[in-house]
Design goal:
This protein has two domains: 86 residues, Fe-S cluster assembly (FSCA) (GMP Synthetase, Chain A, domain 3, 2-Layer Sandwich); 250 residues, Rossmann fold (3-Layer(aba) Sandwich), CATH 3.40.50.300. The chain is an alpha/beta fold. Helix 5 packs across helix 13 and helix 8 runs parallel beside helix 9. The mean pLDDT is 89. The chain is elongated, with a radius of gyration of 23 Å. 34% of the residues lie in helices and 22% in strands. The site of adenosine-5'-diphosphate has 19 residues, from helix 5 and helix 12.
Length: 352
């Protein structure tokens, strides 16, 4: 006959889709009873209004039903008592999600000005780490110019909200994405907010989003040294910042400003990437430096940050990354950059 231990073991494979933890670990399973081939137990939900209720019951039923000798499974539902809930989330009423999250490393991507490819670099970094097998999320902190969903989705799904917080949406390779654009009724809806409201939104993306267990969270900052960047640096425990620049004039000066901000906030600078550095024309041997010779090395050493590498202008970026296919973009020039960033922050665990 099947034992209670076996039942619990089977149920420990069932995850709460919102909290991304298993139902046994969350203390959701009670009153396991076994009578011959009949198993019954109670599943205590965070709230009976849980949008994932049916899915969880079905998964629990399947998991237990698959045990040898079990021919009937009865799942009773109830809501957790306030004490049970407190055990998982503590006393907080705000930032409940943050208490459940386990985000190991956080990298922000910053630039002095807009249009240099900061969001692209944030996206490529997430993709590269995901390809290495890490659990990765992207937080789009560019509230007024959000462009992360475009990189990952042609038709973005809406994030689900549960009692514990907002659940990010999964890209096709399983990168968890949260952006204000996913929450707007229309993608082209403008967010016309003053600083404090923007800061609040960013804090919520950190405190009220159920990121779950992540090896790395990539934060796409808005350009420059605005309020929003300050909020990120103050309220999110960053491992460090990757700076993005382009070879155009003034790039050096704006990089220095942004770097100084990070230094003042005591956030480590992980390195500098120069985007749109050159073009490789079909048939030509030599790369063509459209904006003149690169000064990225110089700028990096002036600012005192490691130089991570250069990315070419590539028309495939426009054709793929603007239609949600960044995960299919090969990005071979980016691989060593991502590897160096991972090494610097100590992201070395062998992923499962
Ligand atoms: N290396 C590149 N080659 C071709 N197009 C690029 C490259 N980098 C960025 N772009 C394009 O330039 C635009 C601005 O890039 P984006 O990453 O949104 O900049 P930022 O976030 O710094 O404002 C996007 O349309 C993007 O697809
Ligand atoms: Mg951007």
């Amino acid at each position: 006959m099947v034992t209670e231990k076996q039942v619990l073991e089977a149920l420990s494979k069932v995850k709460d889709p919102e909290l991304r933890r298993d139902v046994v670990e969350l203390g959701m399973i009670h009153d396991v009873e076994i009578e011959e081939g009949r198993v019954s137990f109670t599943l205590a939900l965070t709230t009976m209004a849980c949008p994932f209720k049916e899915r969880m019951v079905e998964n629990a039923r399947l998991a237990v039903g698959a045990l040898p000798g079990v021919n009937q499974v009865e799942v009773n539902l109830r809501a957790m008592t306030p004490e049970e809930r407190k055990k998982i989330v503590g006393d907080q009423t705000e930032g409940v999600a943050a208490a459940l999250n386990d985000v190991k490393h956080i990298i922000a991507v910053m630039s002095g000005k807009g249009g240099v490819g900061k969001s692209l670099v944030a996206g490529l970094l997430a993709v590269a780490l995901r390809r290495e097998g890490y659990e990765v999320g992207v937080l789009d902190a560019d509230i007024t110019g959000p462009s992360i969903p475009r990189l990952f989705f042609s038709d973005p799904p809406q994030p689900q909200g549960g009692p514990m917080g907002l659940v990010p949406v999964d890209s096709s390779t399983g990168i968890r994405v949260m952006s204000i654009n996913l929450l707007l009724p229309r993608e082209d809806e403008a967010v016309i907010w003053r600083g404090p409201l923007i800061s609040r939104a960013i804090q919520q993306f950190w405190g009220d989003v159920i990121w779950g267990e992540l090896d790395a969270l990539v934060v796409d900052l808005p350009p420059g040294t605005s309020d929003a960047s300050l909020t990120v640096m103050q309220s999110i425990p960053l491992d460090g910042v990757v700076m993005v620049t382009s070879p155009q004039g003034l790039a050096g000066m704006v990089v220095r400003k942004a770097a100084r901000m990070a230094q003042q906030m005591k956030v480590p600078l992980l390195g500098l990437v120069e985007n749109m550095s050159y073009v490789t024309c079909p048939g030509a041997e030599e790369p063509f430096e459209l904006f003149g010779p690169s000064h990225a090395h110089e700028i990096a050493s002036l600012v005192g940050v490691p130089f991570l590498g250069r990315l070419p202008i590539d028309p495939r970026i426009a054709t793929m990354c603007d239609v949600g296919q960044i995960e299919d973009y090969p990005a071979k020039e980016f691989e060593p950059i991502a590897r160096e960033v991972a090494r610097t922050i100590g992201l070395t665990k062998v992923p499962a």
